[in-house]
Each structure stands twice: as C-alpha cells, then as structure tokens.
Amino acid sequence: MRIRSCVFVLFFAVCVLGRSFAQAPESPVSYTTLARTQTSHYEVYAEGGAGASIELSKEMETRFEVYNRLFRFEESALVSPLRVIAFDNAGSFDSYISAQLGRRREGAVYLHYQRPERRELVLLLGGGESGRLAAHQAFVQFLRAFLPNPPSWIRDGFAVYFSTLFFSGEGVAYEENLAWLDTVKAWGRETPSLDSVLMADIQGSFENFIPASWALVSFLLNSGNIDYQRTLFESFMLLKPGASSAENSRIAREYMNTWINSGAFAQDYRNYFASRKTFAELVDMGKASYQQDPAMAEMYFLQAIELRPGHYAPYYYLGIMAYERNDWNLADFYYESALENGADRPLTLYALGLNALSSGRTVEARALLNQAVEADPERYRDKAEELLRSH
C-alpha cells in the first residue's frame, strides 16, 4: 500500500500526563466487563462483544504495521501491550472518560500515564468525526509507546498525516485530506521557518504550528528528494525514549541541520506546495480542459482519484470521456465505480443504460433505464422511453 501525505482540520483529544487512576473518581463503566482480545501488540476491550474486539484488534495490528514501516521502532521495546477500550454507546464513553478526566471529550482520547501498563486509548466507535479522532489518537498511542516525549512536530505532523488512515475488513484504506493545503500555500514567503518548527518545544509553539508540522512532514516524505526523506528517517533513529521533548527536538534539529541547506530547503518547500493541488482543484481543472485537451483532463481526473479514491466525481467524468470515445467497457467500469462511491443513482443508471444501448446490449440497457425511471420517474421517464423507441 502506498501512503501519501495528508492533512485534516485537526480535532484534538487530550493526552494526560502523570495522572493515576487512584486520583480519579471510580467510573460507573468498567472496561473489565467488556469483551477482550489480546494480540502481539494490543490488548483490546470492546463493548460490542467478542466479534467487535477481534475486529478492532485486527485493525490496530494493521495500523501498527503501517506506522512502523516508517518509524522502524524495535518492537521488543514494548514493555506491555497497547490497551484499547472501545465503546459503541456514547453514554458509556462519556461516563468512562469523565471518571478519568473529570470532564467530557469527543470521540477518542489517549490517556498517557507514567506507568506504561496504565496507558490506554479510549474510543467511541463510529464513522465521520469519531473515525478521524480515532485514527489521529491511535497514532499518538503508537508513537508514545516507544517515544514517550517525541518532538511536537513529529507527534502532531504525523498524527495529521495518519488521521485519514481507515480500516475495512479488507485492510487499510487511505484518502488524502488536504484541508490545510490552501492555508499552507497562502503563506508564501511568510512560511514558518524550518528551525521554528523543529524547535517549537524549546522556543515555544505558534498559531500555525499544526499545519506547519503537517506541511513539514508532507514535504520531507513526498518532495521526491531522497536526501530529505533519508534525513527524516535517520533522525528517528537518534531520538531517545528517556529524553524530554525539548531534548529530542534538539537532537533532531542538530542532525537535520547537518544535512539540510536552509536556503535550498526554503525554495524546494515553496515549489513543492505550489505544485500541490486539492481534490476540488483537480476536478475543476479536469472539467475546464475537457473540451480542449482530453488527455490533460483525464490526467487531472486520475490524480483526483489518487487523492480521494472514495469520491464519485472523477469516476463519473472519466465515464463520460470513455463513452464519447466509444470505449464501452471502460465507460461501464467508471460509471459503476461512480455508483459504488455515492454518485447520483438515477443519473448514473441512466448513463449506464445509454452506454449499454450504444454498445448494442439492448436487453441490459432496457433494465438499466427502467431502474433509472423507477428511481426518478420525473427526470428520466420521457428520456428513457425516447431512447428505447429510437433503438
């Protein structure tokens, strides 16, 4: 699986340092009553029963594998399994978290205690915002299991990077989220310096630290310059589990400054973000160049799919282009992909029917057009009847 850069409008959950369970009121919900599954790296408790705990444990192990492809931490350094507690019910989640923190939190919370065996990731299962929160905090749990006090730019930048890494029964799925991209591109020459990001734990954070952290991670990983990527990976190896965030920040900064020319970096950084396009930009560029330069339009739509493989729009437009080239099979593929990813059902059924009719599959075309009419008779009854009369 190829992982590319990503960013999202950040949702924070609190990481608690140095508190003990004895200091918090007893929770009316006990995780020990939940279904438990233990794997190589995780101990998972789930409110939804044994099946839910098994499924979640598979997800967490898959996430662990993806994370460690980049970080290459020594797995034997784990002193205890990473605990995950998952609730299906919002009331149960709120009761448990309120008992630990004395206040409510949204969706996912990583509780980082001094004793490793007491640390836990607490989740409210569900899609949307809860899924993003869970993905964000799952990475923080992984990172701090090996490196309790990482540099903030690594913690926050990579948490954003992995925040849209989702899991299905078939494995992980990744859809790059570039919600910070316009912000970062707008900085121009006002972009926070490399040193200010690397040294935030010493010099102090700043207003745009989260997007700046994501931007640095995105650039180092995806600029295409192997020296930048290598410098990032090698800096991971120098960080110390027993050091403070400030100390680890200084270690990473000194090593990276040895190999990175700040002047060249600044120009390369600006060029990289100037070249990055959002999903919406790519779709609009594809639509704009559709008549004059179909090959360029196709390239833009394919790039849009690479960014957001779960969005219907580029598939639908590629279906239209294939249809107009009389490439019926490819048009079927793209229209069906659009339908699977949430395209307007009557519209796409009509397009599939038209494609089938044009390729001589009259029986199939009739069935598809009838489905379009059933789904939206006002829009498609007359059109479908006219098409079928003409064939």
What does this structure look like?
The chain is of the alpha/beta class and 391 residues long. The chain folds into 3 domains: 16-174, Glutaredoxin; 181-275, no CATH class; 279-389, Serine Threonine Protein Phosphatase 5, Tetratricopeptide repeat (Alpha Horseshoe), CATH 1.25.40.10. The chain is 57% helix and 9% strand. The protein has helices at residues 50-71, 90-101, 129-146, 152-161, 181-187, 194-198, 200-203, 209-222, 226-238, 245-259, 262-275, 279-288, 294-307, 313-324, 328-340, 345-358, 362-375, 377-389; strands spanning 16-17, 35-38, 42-46, 82-87, 108-112, 120-124, 165-168, 171-174. The strands form 2 sheets. It has a 6-stranded mixed β-sheet, sandwiched between helices. It has a two-stranded antiparallel ribbon with strand order 7-8. Strand 2 and strand 3 (42-46) form a beta hairpin. Helix 12 (279-288) runs antiparallel to helix 13 and helix 14 (313-324) runs antiparallel to helix 15 (328-340). The chain is globular and about 75 Å long.
